[in-house]
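In these records, each integer encodes one residue's backbone shape. Here is one protein:

___
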Amino acid sequence: MKSLLIFFLLLFVGLFTLQAQEIRVYKEPEFGFDWSKPSEYPDRIILTFGEDATSEVSVNWRTNTEIRTAFAELAVATGAPKFWRNAITQKAQTEVFEASQIATAEVVANYHSVSFSNLTPGTVYAYRVGDGTRWSEWFQFKTPSDQAGDKFSFLYVGDAQNYILELWARLIREGYRKAPDADFIIHAGDLINYAHREQEWHEWFTAGGFIHSMLPTLAVPGNHEYNYLNEADRESRKRSLSIQWKPQFSFPPNGPKGLEETAYYVDYPDAKFIFLDSNRDQELQAAWLVEILEANTKKWVIVSYHHPLFSASAGRDNEALRMLWKPIFDKYKVDLALQGHDHSYGRGRVSPGENVMDGMNMRDKTGTVYVVSVSGGKMYGIKPDGWEEWGAVRDRAAENTQLFQVVSIEGNRLLFESYTAIGELYDKFELTKGEDGINDFRDYKEVLPEEFRFSNTIPYEDQLPQIVEEKLLDTYPGFKVGQVRFFEEKGKARIRVILQKDNQTKDLILDQEGRVISEK
């Protein structure tokens, strides 16, 4: 009996080992050339705020060039199905989008936009868009309250950028499920990977679906929203803003001259949201930022831009930008800075007073809280030694984790919560604003899980099975395994392995059992 138990135990261990060593090749989706092309039906319908969030919204959408005249209809929504009897119809502004000669864009379309103003705060509205015959469904949104102190919330996400429809879709949809009453979404740049690529913009709109049409989007361009339009631009190193950016978004045109709709601000009764384009004209924006903050009367100030002043990932410091913008944030008591770019997570603080850290002070009070987050599937490693060398304290970090954030503001209280793509709480802190404008800080580390790292999450890089690695290193003594990549060739799984020893490199192709097929 004992020997029989040992037999089954060994059999189980053997099967488990084989299963654990299985080579799994990921198959990325392929999209047909026409998948992202426009038709006569409205698509890419997206809502944005005007300067006054309580009374101004804009809606943009796309069709093919057959649709030269378009409209948007708006009505106060009620429970009665024929609420549309009270609708107004407004003719859209239409512009031709000619990108047939731009690589990766290669499309001609019409973009339409309508701005609605004088809306009633705290009211549910319904709208639809179309050409008078072909209409979208009715979408609903709610204008914010105009009463200072009333509660509101919003979502914030870092870079979507890669594997957008594959992996970002689950993240943004989970964010909507977690915070269905959120007022809007902040996107901190790098919405896509290649600035002008139609397919990626189509992935982004498809991934968000109706969410884009119901929660206003407030976005800043990242470095991946800038790229060359042609070879001449590449030779002169002239990078242009994504040609889709301005036709498909209607952000308030209240930014510095030449930066309209990439730098702008939006007002709530108790909060000012300022959006900056960290890719260019940083000094011009610094002067504009001072002007805006000098005149500010709002209790809360939240800024968003792409390149972090305090980088979460190793080797990605933006010192010049920090030296330029941070003194302004300090002087005018910016409460929260929402950033992207680093494909990891970091959250930390600076002193509320002089740029000198005080352990006791930092435990109870804080200046600007800086957050870096990533929502897409591309991941980098974190800066291992925190932010102390830059005069800040990093309180929380993560690697290899897709995250979205929910920020809620009510009166003197701001609550920040970060969640994983499956809705797990990962980070949480609270700010309470004092009469002097200084924020009391409370961390919730006692309710948070262990920090996520590459070492305690599902491997991000392909991993050579241990048995195969041991056999390979026996065959090539003194070498170490470098890059490992799984791929498929003629329907069979293959492993590419780079081995390195001193100045020697071997480029191997293995079959699924670990046998060497070719060597370079």
Q: What stands out?
A: The longest strand covers residues 480-489. The chain has a mean pLDDT of 93. The radius of gyration is 26 Å. Residues 2-20 form the longest helix (19 residues).
